[in-house]
């Protein structure tokens, strides 16, 4: 039975070794698949090899567990880690947002147009600002206010929403609350944040106003994985724009928000397509 609509991705990380790519290619060819993409990168400083193959099954369809079982010999032979994913269906995600909704709007509209391979199962917010827009998009909206001294309870509600949605990714789309170290650890590699990291010298309130006063020439944003180190997680994507003396504070903010939306959209798409592999504190992104 031909099953061209069954899309799989295999990722493999191990110490680099002669014949590694050929071995995996041969393994897939023997299983009667059509390889649609093949990517390989070696980190020169550590000698770690990172590989990603996407393919379509042409004969009998195997379950993910069957693929993992068949690939165990690769892990043993090359002392590596094999992961197998089914990317035939959009990845389920939950989005967290506060008052600024430009990233939320962008993600929803791109998803509705088919440009993003995700299914937005729910939106959670500590404000009611975006309820009507989210419900207009026919997405469940959860108001989870932040009350002093009740951070644990609030995060427990967010965890429950993610779990009940069977979501694989939590997207912090300008969610202006700092997650606890416990929650960051729990969502390691499963939560993406966006922030104005191209303005590192301007912390606190009104960073774009501070940057404007200093005559900054480049502004931008960074999408990264959430870790227990605040805003220092592995970087997935960055977007920048040049500005000059003629640009007003208001336009600074508009340009900055555009870069935030662009960087976050790309990071979410690449994560959902299993194109992002972690190597220590760095990411390898097979675009």
From TrEMBL:
Keyword Hydrolase set for record: yes
Catalysed transformations (reactions): (6R)-10-formyltetrahydrofolate + H2O = (6S)-5,6,7,8-tetrahydrofolate + formate + H(+)
Active site, per annotation: 231
Pfam families associated with the record: ACT (PF01842), Formyl_trans_N (PF00551)
InterPro entries according to UniProt: ACT-like_dom_sf, ACT_dom, Formyl-FH4-Hydrolase_C, Formyl_transf_N, Formyl_transf_N_sf, PurU, PurU_ACT
UniProt-listed Enzyme Commission number(s): 3.5.1.10
CDD domains: ACT_F4HF-DF, FMT_core_Formyl-FH4-Hydrolase_C
Designated name of the protein: Formyltetrahydrofolate deformylase
Native organism: Temperatibacter marinus
């Amino acid at each position: 039975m031909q099953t061209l609509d069954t899309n799989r991705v295999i990722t493999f990380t191990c110490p680099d070794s002669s014949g590694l790519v050929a071995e995996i290619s041969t393994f897939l060819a023997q299983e009667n698949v059509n390889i649609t993409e093949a990517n390989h990168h070696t980190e020169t400083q550590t000698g770690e090899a990172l590989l990603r193959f996407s393919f379509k099954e042409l004969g009998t369809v195997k379950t993910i567990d069957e693929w993992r079982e068949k690939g165990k010999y690769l892990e043993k032979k090359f002392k590596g880690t094999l992961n197998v994913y089914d990317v035939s269906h959009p990845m389920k995600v939950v989005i967290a947002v506060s008052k600024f909704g430009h990233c939320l709007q962008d993600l929803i509209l791109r998803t509705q147009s088919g440009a993003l391979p995700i299914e937005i199962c729910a939106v959670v917010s500590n404000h009611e600002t975006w309820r009507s827009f989210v419900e207009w998009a026919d997405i469940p909206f959860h108001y989870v206010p932040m009350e002093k001294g009740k951070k644990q309870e609030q995060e427990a509600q967010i965890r429950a929403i993610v779990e009940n949605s069977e979501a694989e990714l939590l997207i912090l789309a300008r969610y202006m609350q700092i997650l606890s170290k416990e929650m960051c650890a729990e969502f390691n590699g499963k939560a993406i944040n966006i922030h104005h990291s191209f303005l590192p010298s301007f912390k606190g309130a009104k960073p774009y106003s501070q940057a404007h006063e200093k005559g900054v020439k480049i502004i931008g944003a960074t999408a990264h994985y959430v870790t227990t180190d605040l805003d220092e997680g592995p970087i997935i994507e960055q977007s920048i724009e040049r500005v000059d003396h003629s640009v007003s504070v208001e336009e600074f903010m508009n340009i900055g928000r555009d870069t935030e939306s662009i960087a976050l959209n790309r990071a979410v798409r690449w994560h959902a397509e299993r194109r992002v592999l972690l190597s220590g504190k760095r990411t390898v992104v097979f675009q």
